[in-house]
Write a structure and sequence with these properties.
single chain, three-stranded antiparallel beta sheet, 293 residues
Length: 293
């Protein structure tokens, strides 16, 4: 490696693939060649970088007997890098061929009469990455239980956003903007101190509720130390929540002024699964404060 010119070392290293036989199908350890929804070759480096952290959470966790409060924040992009994985373990593999498993378990995407659409590779790849993430987190939760720190810990799992995969008609509104509102349906799971069991709530929640949930029962009347403002979720129910429904609206390279550029907006209240709780602008407008035009 050292005798190579510096300019060629990066290409030769090939993301760690330099000392490995490479076939025509498996071009690199840093990418995945997708044949169809069940077959792929190679592994994504970005996925492996994040997934490796999840598989090593037990070894990265230090259990202390000291009686003091701790706050731990973990950020991981495994769900953010959709990748086809080997089923049913949902683990990365140089060669993925789930043809037989997918055919034998084609009904696993149907629940209570509703079927998720997984007809294209990108839809199933998101499912695989999410499954891999949850399985590894579940393994870590078991480790925390065995270590005796699960009950005395508040645990929150939250994602930054959903994805417009058009997997369910519930969130597809072609009569308005032909968009999949599942983009605004991120994961939020909460286990409070000494909580047991599992339940699902249809209460209107946002990922911006996380600070309020985090301080609940821990700090009375919490205040943001940088702004001096109280930390609560009163704003959520004070009015309908406005969301921008096209991708460039949030991009600072396109939208870096003092107000959002004109675009199509939607407002949601209460049940996000109920079309009656969504309102849409008829034309592209500039965001108005707390109301639709």
């Amino acid at each position: 490696m050292k005798i190579l010119p510096v300019a060629t070392q990066y290409a030769f290293y090939d993301a760690g693939n330099y000392h490995r036989a490479v076939t025509a199908e498996l071009e690199s350890a840093s990418s995945q060649v997708v044949v169809n929804s069940s077959v792929a070759y190679g592994m994504k480096k970005d996925f492996l970088d994040s997934y490796a952290v999840l598989t090593n959470l037990n070894g990265m966790t230090k259990i202390s007997a000291e009686e003091q409060n701790h706050f731990l924040f973990l950020y991981n992009e495994t769900p953010h890098t959709p990748t086809l994985l080997r089923e049913p373990e949902y683990v990365p593999s140089n060669v993925v061929d789930n043809t037989e498993y997918d055919e034998a378990h084609s009904d696993r995407f149907t629940l209570d009469g509703e079927t998720l659409q997984v007809s294209v590779p990108m839809q199933i790849a998101h499912y695989h990455s999410n499954m891999a993430t949850m399985l590894q987190i579940a393994a870590w939760m078991e480790y925390l239980k065995v270590s005796g720190v699960y009950d005395n810990t508040k645990i929150i799992l939250v994602s930054d956003h959903g994805c417009d995969l058009y997997q369910s008609e519930i969130f597809h509104y072609p009569e308005h903007i032909n968009s999949d509102m599942a983009s605004f349906f991120p994961l939020l799971m909460v286990k409070d101190f000494n909580a047991h069991g599992f339940s699902v709530s249809d209460e209107f929640m946002t990922n911006a509720d996380v600070p309020t949930i985090s301080f609940d029962g821990v700090i009375e009347n919490p205040v943001n130390p940088f702004t001096g403002k109280p930390i609560n979720n009163a704003e959520k129910t004070a009015h309908g929540q406005l969301v921008v429904t096209y991708h460039d609206g949030w991009n600072i390279h396109e939208n870096n002024g003092n107000t959002f550029l004109p675009c199509t907006w939607a407002m949601v209240t209460n049940n996000i699964r109920d079309r009656n709780d969504w309102q849409f602008c008829d034309t592209t407008v500039v965001l108005q404060e707390h109301q639709l035009p």
